[in-house]
Amino acid sequence: SIAPDEVLKTLDGKTVKLKDLYMEKPVYLNFWASWCPPCVKEMPHIENMYKKYGDKVNFVVVSVDSKEEQARAFVSKSDFTMPIYTGDINRLSDDYGLSAIPVSILIDTHGKIVKRTVGGMDEAALEKFIKSGLTP
């Protein structure tokens, strides 16, 4: 299926369209929240993958916290360099069927969802997931 396009907002207020990101390079899309223990546990692994694959893959790490401040507070306590976004939670939940988080999704440069996993991954599983979306 084709990834629904979304308008996302960076924590410093810039807007970006998901479509623009996946047309440029494959996207690793992750939905998380600051109140979700498996999400929080996974975040450092995502950061490490961003440092390793950020030149080949656009990382789109989207908070579904009900208030943007919650995401901002969480991020301010960490030293993440990966891009963190917020968006219209109801729309994101409907479009991406978010019944449980974290959710990781790989989108190719044609906008096709090539892989989807529900639940936190350890670093090895996450690396395997991301590498599977890279063309050799």
Short description:
The protein is of the alpha/beta class and 136 residues long. It contains five helices and seven strands; from the N terminus they run ββαβαβαβαββα.
Descriptive account of the structure:
37% of the residues lie in helices and 24% in strands. It contains five helices and seven strands; from the N terminus they run ββαβαβαβαββα. It has a seven-stranded mixed beta sheet. α2 crosses α5 (123-131). The protein is globular and about 40 Å long.
Features:
seven-stranded mixed β-sheet; 7 strands; single chain; 136 residues; alpha/beta; 24% strand
Write the layout of secondary structure elements.
Blueprint: E1 7-10, E2 15-17, H1 18-24, E3 27-32, H2 37-53, E4 58-63, H3 68-76, E5 84-86, H4 89-96, E6 103-107, E7 113-118, H5 123-131
Parallel strand pairs: 3-4, 4-5
Antiparallel strand pairs: 1-2, 1-5, 3-6, 6-7
Can you tell me the residue ranges where pLDDT is under 50 for at least 5 consecutive residues?
none
Biggest sheet architecture: 7 strands, mixed
Strands, total number: 7
How many helices in DSSP terms?
5
Query: How would you write the strand order of the largest sheet?
Result: 2-1-5-4-3-6-7
The average pLDDT value, as a whole number, equals 93
Order of helices and strands: EEHEHEHEHEEH
